Amino acid sequence: MNHTLIAGASIVICMDDAQSELVATDIRVKDGVISEIGPGLKPDGAGIVNAAGCVVTPGLVNTHHHLYQTLTRAVPAGQDALLFGWLKTLYPIWARMTPADIHLATLCGLGELALSGCSTSSDHLYLFPNGTRLDDTIAAAAVVGMRFHPTRGSMSIGESGGGLPPDQLVEDEAAILDDCIRVIDAFHDPNPGAMVRVGIAPCSPFSVSRELMRDAAILARDKGVRLHTHLAENDEDVAYSLENFGCRPGQYAEDLGWTGSDVWHAHCVKLDAGEIDLFARTRTGVAHCPCSNCRLGSGIAPVRAMRDAGVPVGLGVDGSASNDRAWLIDEARQTLLLQRVENGADAMAAREALWIATRGGAEVLGRDDIGQIAVGKRADLALWDVGGLESAGSWDPAVLVLAGPRMVRDLFVEGRRIVAEGRLATVDAPTLADRASQAVVRLVDE
Ligand SMILES: [Zn+2]
Question: Is the C or the N end of the chain the one with fewer CB within 10 Å?
């Protein structure tokens, strides 16, 4: 039996419905589940992890990523390009990647996320070069020990059909739907505590047909899985929708079945008031990716307005080629900063930003078993050592988003300690970084 006692935490930020913050508290974890919370718990044979001097939060939840891009960070020709030009630079490089590259990129990306406090990540893999399959990323997540929501992405309109990607990276639409069924049947686990849940995720409205968007929604509902795509990322994106579909992105999504509590869209920087109302009424979720939006100059998403209206909002790091780092706690801080730039210093509290990073993300992924610290919830826990210089002088060490460590000391996922004393426990980080460097040399040369 997996039995751990996290003992003597300075502060436990529960992110429960009462928004409890407990001092000098122990947390008992049995078989992946939080079984007891309180002061002075008896060991009863548990392995003890001393959490004195630590703030404990739920593991953070990443709702948008393209893990394969971890091997194409800071590509010179893409460093200063706008979204569409950036994509055109990177497509030929991505087309050279192998299944082993994508497995390695996923290991590196998830390892980085874990160190930044993330215990659950989604992934949006929408190109499958040289025999790559969604299976390659799922295998990597199991090695790292991350809770994983891979989505089976797709592109079907290549350059010859008026789309953006080169023809060699697009797939036949019937084959896309067949493979969605295959990976759902093979890997999707609808049960509480699931370590893998699969979603369906055509890349964007400008890289697949109207028919595929509609059929993907029908298939997702038939299979009981979630839908994900990019929407209203920037002005070019909205202009494309108006010109090619004769409507705004929100209308396009609604017409094709892409609204509802089982749908989440990445970015949504350019949603207007009507679209925010549509998302709130239908409980359609948003993956807010503030660093990516800044990096690509896309704009500031109306997160304050979305939250006030009742739209479920979580955070995403987005692909490492457009961020270029995947450091999830930083996205919470960036969310707060951008909302204050737009709406004033009282527009978002630090505790709200951390809520979005945990409970918000869990809701966006359709999970009520993670994102909070409460008896019966899964034991996904981040321990932040507030004894260092980053927290020195802080009057409120619980507000990690304002002052505090950016790296976890320990991270538990389903009760398993995958970061211990600031180091990844399941993979060897220096070895991974070395292999990534070698892969980049090969991708540049080819
Ligand atoms: Zn993205």
Answer: N
